[in-house]
Fold this sequence. Notes:
10 helices, Aminoglycoside 3'-phosphotransferase, Chain: A, domain 2, Phosphorylase Kinase, domain 1
Amino acid sequence: xxxxxxxxxxxxxxxxxxxxxxxxxxxxxxxxxxxxxxxxxxxxxxxxxxxxxxxxxxxxxxxxxxxxxxxxxxxxxxxxxxxxxxxxxxxxxxxxxxxxxxxxxxxxxxxxxxxxxxxxxxxxxxxxxxxxxxxxxxxxxxxxxxxxxxxxxxxxxxxxxxxxxxxxxxxxxxxxxxxxxxxxxxxxxxxxxxxxxxxxxxxxxxxxxxxxxxxxxxxxxxxxxxxxxxxxxxxxxxxxxxxxxxxxxxxxxxxxxxxxxxxxxxxxxxxxxxxxxxxxxxxxxxxxxxxxxxxxxxxxxxxxxxxxxxxxxxxxxxxxxx
Length: 322
């Protein structure tokens, strides 16, 4: 087996697992698996295989990560595929193929197309159309008639994120507290918020869009029941932050974020959540990203603190979605 990244440890691990996976999935000897590449991403090992037999030729993606995360992701794919996010619909998830009995590995269809993150960096027309499709895909997910139980609220984690950033940057304590109080007040009022199927980590590297117009969301480890505003605010905050990292400006993604909102709102036919709640989730996303960047990954990017806190404050207080 040859891997794209010539890592003997990854190759050896995959060599040990593939026969077990074929046995659990009852793949017969007439079906060939050719390993295309193997790579690691944070704490995940991923691999791509071409499956060839007399009936079909398709490309599959497998991942090895903690069993509980694999189980959550695969069961979400099964529910969403069965619920309608599958061809001939243009809004899909990868077809779930199978898993090891111990959940060490899951296997799914390779999502067709290119990452939205790449498409947003192309010409304005491509970026705008792709952002609209991402908004339409998210509405399709939120509109599925699935009964959902509540996922963990953002508010307890918000306390943690603010405390960690304050420890690293005490000179911004008053700004952090002001934003924290505003978001907590806005999101604490949730007596009758309808829970919808929510991705939980929806950003521009978790959705593919193909030239044929198929949009495919991936990575459902955090799938659960949340209000619509949670995914919307998270995507907008993540997209703004990714653009800022690349260009030093939020304006670089302003048009794409506006197109995303337009796509969602048009598809939702008036089902758009209040902007104040979306803005609160945008603000919370910036606080989370500061926590992750500075506290967990120890990037040293203290230059992000002021612009990202200003963006969080604008979103939470002025309901600035762009």
